[in-house]
Design a protein that fits this description.
mainly alpha; 5 helices; 84% helix
Length: 118
């Protein structure tokens, strides 16, 4: 590492040890959480780092997550469900059209229609 990088790393260590850790311990204490030893504190700090990393990666999907939560709260269907339903309706329509074009089906419908009108 260069001198500048060493100085930056040392500054980060000082800020972490002198500012972040005491603030973290105070915040945890305000929620009634005390750490019995340094190992427990270290585990809690590592957990926070992992949670922040997970939250950061999730930020890319905030809009989608918000839309999904809103859709769920309003009991609206998911877009993929709507698309599947539309495809199902289209398939039924095509099957119906195909059946009505077939000569024997058309004739049977005509016979039933005439019988019910008389």
């Amino acid at each position: 590492m260069s001198g500048t990088q060493d100085q930056a790393a040392a500054a980060q260590t000082v800020l972490f040890d002198e500012v972040y850790v005491p603030a973290f311990k105070a915040k945890c204490a305000s929620f009634g959480l005390q750490f019995p030893d340094n190992e427990s504190l270290q585990s809690a700090l590592e957990s926070v780092v992992m949670l922040k990393a997970a939250e950061s990666s999730k930020q890319n999907h905030v809009t989608k997550s918000a839309a999904d939560a809103l859709r769920s709260a309003l009991h609206l269907p998911k877009p993929e469900d709507v698309a599947a339903n539309q495809q199902h309706v289209e398939d039924e329509k095509q099957a119906s059209d195909k059946l009505s074009r077939e000569q024997n089906v058309r004739q049977a419908i005509d016979v039933l229609a005439k019988a019910s009108s008389s």
